Structure formats: C-alpha cells, structure tokens
Amino acid sequence: MQRAGVKTIFSLSGNQIMPIYDACIDAGIRIVHVRHEAAAVYMADAWAQLTGEIGVALVTAAPGITNCLSPVFSARLAESPILLLSGDSPLSQDGMGAFQELDQIEVTKKLVKKSLRLASAQDIDQDMTSAISLALSGRPGPVHIAMPFDLLQEDVDISKAKRGQVPARVSTSLSAADAQQIKERIAKAERPLVLVGPMNNASRAPDLVKNASNVLQAPIIAMESPRGLRDPSLGHFPQVLKKADLVVLVGKTLDFTLNFGRSAGMNPGADIVVIDPDETMIDRAKQLLGTRLFKHALADSDAALRELSNYTYPGKRDAWLEEVDGAISNRTLKSPSDENTANPGPKAICQAVQKILDEAADPILISDGGEFGQWAQAFCRAPTRIINGLSGAIGGALCYAIAASIARPNATIIAMMGDGTVGFHSTEFETAARENAKFIAVVGNDSRWNAEYMIQLREYGPDRLYGCTLNDSARYDLLASALGAQGAYAEQADQLDEVLSKAAKHSGATCINIRMEGQAAPAF
C-alpha cells in the first residue's frame, strides 16, 4: 500500500488484522478508526471520489466483512475505486471450524469487481498492487482481498517476494474506426446529448467534462441519482431529453434511470450510441434498444471523451446548449413548496445552507436521505458534491463528511440528511471529534421516515399511515454533543442563519438538529 501511495486507511480493528495495524506504524499510514465497519467503507468511498485515489477500508473477518456489504454495493454503483481488505481465518485451519471461518469470496464476489483470498505471503505485494490497478481501471469499483491470519504473521524473505508494478489506471481507448464514425454522427446532429455515469460527474472530472462539452458543442449530463430522470438536481431535463436527436451514452449504463431506454422517455427518432468498458452493458443495450442503437463501442468513458474531443466539429449549437442548461436549472415546482408552517420547510433550510456554501472558498455539499435529500439536491449546489448515489442506500453522510474533512481539511463541508439517515451512523460523531474533523451536519428532523410515509400517504391514504414515524423528542444535537461534537437546535426559520453561521466558524464537527415540516420530494 505504501508503494501505491496510500497514506490513509479507514478501519475498525479486530483480531485478524492487528498485524496490519502494526505494519502501518512503520509504513507511515494513518488509520482512521471508526465505530462500524460500514462506516469505514463509506469513508473509503468518499476518499476515492474526492481524491481520485484508491480508497482503502480495512475490516476484520466474518462479521467484519458482512457488516460492510451495503456500502460496498453503494460504492460499486458510484464507480468508486476501493480496496476492501479483510482479515480471515488461517489457511492452515481451513475446513476445521476455525474461529470466524467463512468463505468470504462467495459472500462478496457479486458486489465487487474481483474478490480473492491470499494464498501465499510471497504473493501479497503482487496481489495487492494488481487489485488496486483493477479497482482504478475500466469502470472503477471495489476490489476485495481476504487475508488469512497465518499469512499476515509469516516471515517473508523480501528478496524472494513477488513485486507487483506500481498501481495505475489502465484505459481502453476507442478504435480509430469507431471513433471516426461516432464523431461524424455527432457532427451531423442538431440536438445531441451526452450522458455519463458517476465517475465523470462535474465533481470528479470537471476539466474533462467541460472541455469535451465545449469541443463537441453538446451538453454532457451526469446521471447518478436513484431517481433517474426524476433526479431533482436535473430540474426539467426530461423535457429536453425528448427533443434530442442523438443520445450518446459514454459509460452511462442503460438501466432503470433511463427507463431502460424506452422511447416514451426519449425522442423515438433519436439515434443512440453506447460506449462502455463492459461488454455485458453493451449486450444489454443491444437487447433493449434494438434498431434504435446506431453504434456501440468498447472503451473507457474518460478515454472516449478525450478521443471524441480530438476533432473539429462544424458550427455552433449555442441555442441548444442554452436550452438544456435552462431546463436543468429550472426549479419551477409542479406544486409550490409550503413554507407557511410552524417549523421551517425543506426549501427554506436549503436556501439558508446555500448562503454558507456561496460564502465558502472551497465548499463541499453532501446529500443523503430520502425526501429531504432530494430537496438538498434540488436547491443546494457546490462545485464538489457527494450524494448517496444510484444504490439508493442511505446513512453514509456522516462518514462521507469525516472523510471529506480529512481529504480536504480547509474545505467548508455541509452534510444534509434526514432524521432517519442520521441514525445509521450517529456514533461516528465520536470519530469526528477524535479525528478533529470539521463539518456541519444539517439534520432535517420531521420525526418520520418521510419517503416511505409519503408512499403510504399516496398509495394507501391518510388512514393507512403505519410504522414510519420516529420519536418527536429525539435530539440528535444533544447526542452529537455527548459524543464530543458541537450541537445546535433550531425550530424557526429565523433561527437558521444564526445557527449555520456559528457552525461554519466552529473548528470541529457540528450537528444542527432542525425541527422541520416534512414535505414530499420536489417535483418539477
């Protein structure tokens, strides 16, 4: 790991991984010790998204690895390069009923790009560097290595150990023929759209995306929300998608977020181009699109965007670019937000938060949760943003915020979450205090699991609301204070600016518990 440039790992200790803890002392690798294994993976995910480096999570055997499966799935769909290291029972005791013996490969292999168990102490360097390169390459994602305890304790002759190459991303480029055909089709289009996945969003690849959009004279839109075309941060985007005469998917998988490519969500006459590093995703596109698939090509998305930018496209599409930008920026709601309530509504909270983000030199927005998270994505913005992503899993916001503070200690970090979300990893406020992490956790507290509450209200009626409420007296600010962070409470709209301003000046983590009027996610 040291040769790969790893300086920080996120971990929860356990018997089988203590040799790694000891080795980190000599390697100069910082261990951020968390309170739950899932938190370690969420932090590694955020680290990878913010730095572009491999994020490393280290957990113990059996219950350690099973505790972190949900965020592994989340990281896979977020296209985050993660190395998940887990302790394991000794090789010498295989099949004997060893302590915490578990076939970890069978548990994780469907969630990661590759899952392997170390077989030789002499191969550790080679296996580790190969795994990191794999995590970084193609469509980035998690790789899992299970480390038997006896191998970690074994003495190895360094001169005989197999040394791997320094890990690096390996990219597959478009063939010359494919690139030329796609460039010519883009040049002929009047209203092209380029859709990309999470790894090429505006936070993680801003220069690449901006340059490609300028050269292609085509809007490039990242899709990374589980709400797909109803992603509130995309405003009225579905309206312009239906007008596009060419849709180019560059590393954007054809899935539920695009209504599986059905013509109802697109211009039925539009040509569709699919560029993807995964043959399986290309085969899916062939099956779903049929004759509407103009061209498919195997290539990595970043390499493809660079190659497509190596061309002189005729003319300008200023009007189309402005129309798409205007649609995405449009926040006209189908139903106006009700702000005439005893407690502030979600829109008012977001507007107050945006003032702090606008004043910050290096703002980072984290959005997590159900309905409140959607308001945050619609009405808060920052050059760097992390959301809970395509998996739809919630609960990682505090973990993302801690990792963000460690990765960029001078940033102004605001994590927006509901009261359901904060409960998943609330003990990480203790981690934040111990690690001197600086961020603001804004908890929109409506005393319910509001996404599910709204489903019940919409589908079954007001007399069938059941099992989705939370305690009205819950004080997450006091919980955070008890764990070493700063707590603040607000229940009136005119209190928001003051508590947020005070939190922004604080040198550590702050939890602002806002008594909020729960509302359905914004619809445009």
UniProtKB/TrEMBL annotation:
CDD domains: TPP_PYR_POX_like (cd07035). One of its GO terms (biological process) is L-valine biosynthetic process. Residues 2-106 form the Thiamine pyrophosphate enzyme N-terminal TPP-binding domain. Keywords: Thiamine pyrophosphate. InterPro entries: DHS-like_NAD/FAD-binding_dom, THDP-binding, Thiamin_PyroP_enz_cen_dom, Thiamin_PyroP_enz_TPP-bd_dom, TPP_enz, TPP_enzyme_TPP-bd. It comes from the Bacteria. Pfam families: TPP_enzyme_C, TPP_enzyme_M, TPP_enzyme_N. GO terms for cellular component: acetolactate synthase complex. The keyword Transmembrane does not apply. One of its GO terms (molecular function) is flavin adenine dinucleotide binding. Residues 180-287 form the Thiamine pyrophosphate enzyme central domain. Its cofactor is thiamine diphosphate. Residues 368-514 form the Thiamine pyrophosphate enzyme TPP-binding domain. Belongs to the TPP enzyme family. This is Acetolactate synthase large subunit IlvG. It comes from Advenella kashmirensis (strain DSM 17095 / LMG 22695 / WT001).
